[in-house]
Amino acid sequence: MSSVYKLTKVQTLPVSISEAWEFFSSPANLPKITPPGLGLMMTSSRANEKMYPGQIIEYTVKPVFGIKQYWMTEITHVEHEKYFIDEQRVGPYALWHHQHHFKKVGNGVEMTDEIHYRLPLWFLGDIANSLFVKSQLAQIFDYRFTKAEMLFGKMKGEV
Question: Which of 91, 96, 89, 98 is nearest to 62 (CA)?
Answer without folding.
Answer: 91
